[in-house]
Specification:
Number of helices: 3
Shape: elongated
Distance between the termini: 60 Å
Structural class: mainly alpha
Radius of gyration: 17 Å
Number of strands: 0
Helix content: 40-55%
Amino acid sequence: MLVNDDPKKVLEKLDNMFMVLILHGLPREYGAVRDQALTNTTIPTVEELIDRLTRVSLPSDDTKTAPE
């Protein structure tokens, strides 16, 4: 699987494997990012995926009250 003479291809395969692991471990709140990454015509790199994840705004917890 990773046996190849070209180190660039090996790194690309490792990057794809790490991306799959990250996508698999995402909570449901990040489902839109997961779906976007899986349906895109090009596979994003791990860096691109993490960048997308950091831009997601999750709904705030309205049950908390501010101290008076």
